[in-house]
Write a structure and sequence with these properties.
The complex is a heterodimer of chains A (282) and B (256). Chain A has 282 residues and is mostly helical. Chain A contains ten helices and two strands, in the order αββααααααααα. The chains are: A mainly alpha (282), B alpha/beta (256).
Chain lengths: 282, 256
């Protein structure tokens, strides 16, 4: 394969041989990584299997988990998945809107707008997400504003991620060269048409991979919303059944598996999306 | 026979970048169907002058008139913005770095202006776009994306994009300076064809051969001043200003 396939009749040149050797090395590496992954996964499964292994005079006993409890409660915990995803999706939408506004504000030459943007980013990044969730849920009622757990959670997550993501949008916007704006203006586009049709689409394409990363991070940070006690997502469900029946180990392991699977699927989808975007760029 | 109608007229134009005086009291015009080349050393202000005509640079002082639309530089506000917009509709611009929109296909690049700015129906715009791509010999790449094309092809598409807006005058800002030498010819050929079709053109260029062959007039700039305005043959044979002579000698010796 490789370069040699261009000219199958000729003996391989030194360059082709080197190239083939390198390919073989890379394939070997990937195979070994996959095998190691499998071994680690097997070890992890074994760790919770309750089996006994004797090596010489030593006896190892793996952790015994209550399979009965898992069978009974897996549905209850699994129903938290859609709730977790719902909160994450709503929050990321809010976060993107805020991030875009903050990024535009950051590029503004009007002092109050620039200040508002930097003020927002500084305030939100300077305080913990956990505190922000509680602020919306517990502090606002004192002012007569009572929000449901979901609304408080989405507002806090959206505001928080929006502040961090404004940097992504700012980088995206400044990645679009001055020449692009000039070309758009020269054919008679207004500044808002230029922004909408020329600058934003290019900035967004630039921003998609890091937004994907943040979305994946958010699906996990959404677990903090469980602290309100009124949002029945994965974490809330796991701690609820775990505490009630003193089976926190099983409950948390189940939740961990759900989060992990979700992350693997989302990472895979994000990879696909990135490949597709890269194609249009060639 | 000579139509003396000026499509572009610049009067007493000054431009400062901070304290730097880059255009010093420039007055010039381009008549209908004329091809005018603007030459001069780097930093002489020729690109800035071109960019002042469609207000990518805002002149500090003076008047720019395009096809009867008169824009005084010291005016501001909504009325001024509208006037600048109207001037841009009458001018087509081709950049040194092409500046095609990378997220759009070749055809979409060309019809973006007609559709978004003029509100033309898409089917009609496609027809118009294809016609203009044909004019520059790039119709066969209509569905390709810009990043897959050579510099010469990109520049020809950029010309088609400007032409699709049906401008009164085409402004070229060193259209071949970013190209590999073997790709310059195809772009110059398209420009020659446009000149033959009677397009009014103002071309900032280092291509002396093109200026000599195609231009009706050549303007020479030096340190922000317009130092010469003559017909190409005369300019190349008897440059009046010693600075023009020095410039031409440098081109002849292949120094630029």
């Amino acid at each position: 394969m490789g370069l040699a396939s261009i000219n199958p009749d000729l003996p391989k040149t030194q360059a082709e041989l080197l190239y083939d050797a390198q390919l073989r090395k890379e394939r070997q590496f990937r195979t070994n990584v996959a095998l190691s992954w499998f071994a680690m996964f097997f070890l992890l499964v074994f760790l919770f299997s309750g089996q006994e292994v004797k090596i010489g005079s030593l006896t190892f006993r793996a952790i015994q988990i209550d399979n009965e409890f898992i069978r009974n409660e897996i549905d209850f915990i699994a129903y938290g998945l859609p709730e977790t995803l719902k909160i994450s999706v709503l929050s990321i939408i809010l976060a993107m809107a805020l991030a875009l506004l903050a990024a535009l504000g950051r590029l503004s030459t009007v002092p109050p707008i620039y200040a508002l943007s930097t003020f927002y980013v500084s305030l939100i990044r300077g305080t913990p997400l956990y505190l922000q969730i509680f602020f919306f849920f517990l502090a606002l009622p004192q002012l007569g504003i009572v929000l449901s757990g979901t609304v408080a959670g989405v507002l806090a997550l959206g505001l928080n991620y929006g502040a961090y993501m404004s940097e992504i949008f700012r980088a995206g916007l400044s990645s679009v060269g001055k020449g692009q704006r000039e070309a758009a203006l020269a054919i008679g586009m207004t500044t808002s048409q230029t922004m909408r049709r020329i600058v934003l689409p290019q900035a967004l394409r630039f921003a998609v991979p890091p937004i994907g990363n943040d979305f994946i991070a958010m699906t996990k940070d959404s677990s903090l919303v469980a602290a309100t006690g009124f949002v029945h997502e994965l974490m809330w469900r796991a701690t609820r059944v775990g505490r009630a029946q003193f089976h926190n180990l099983e409950a948390l392991v189940m939740a961990a598996i759900f989060y992990w699977l979700m992350t693997i699927v989302l990472t895979y989808l994000q990879g696909k999306l990135e490949t597709r975007l890269a194609k249009g760029d060639q | 026979m000579t139509s003396a109608l000026p499509v572009v007229r610049v009067t007493n134009l000054d431009k400062y970048f901070g304290r730097l005086h880059v255009l010093k009291n420039i007055s010039m015009d381009v008549s209908e169907r004329q091809v005018v080349c603007l030459i001069g050393r780097s930093g002489s202000g020729k690109s800035t002058l071109l960019r002042c005509i469609n207000f990518l640079e805002e002149p500090s002082d003076g008047t720019v008139e395009v096809d009867g639309l008169k824009v005084e530089s010291h005016h501001k506000g909504a009325e001024h913005r509208q006037l600048v917009h109207d001037v841009r509709l009458k001018t087509g611009m081709v950049f040194q770095e092409f500046n095609l929109f990378p997220h759009m296909s070749v055809l979409d690049n060309v019809i973006e202006g007609p559709v978004t700015v003029k509100g033309l129906e898409r089917s009609k715009a496609v027809e118009l776009g294809e016609m203009n791509l044909e004019r520059v010999g790039m119709l066969f790449k209509r569905d390709e994306f810009p990043n897959r094309l050579s510099g010469g092809q990109k520049q020809r598409i950029a010309i088609a994009r400007a032409l699709a807006m049906d401008p009164k005058v085409m402004l070229f800002d060193e259209p071949t300076s970013a190209l590999d030498p073997e790709l310059i010819g195809e772009v110059l050929n398209v420009m020659k064809k446009l000149a033959q079709e009677g397009m009014t053109m103002l071309v900032v260029t280092h291509e002396m051969g093109f200026a000599r062959e195609v231009a009706d007039r050549v303007l020479v700039m030096s340190e922000g001043e317009l130092i010469e305005d003559s017909q190409p043959e005369e300019l190349f044979k008897n440059p009046r200003d010693p600075r023009t002579k020095a410039l031409i000698d440098r081109y002849r010796s292949g120094d630029l």
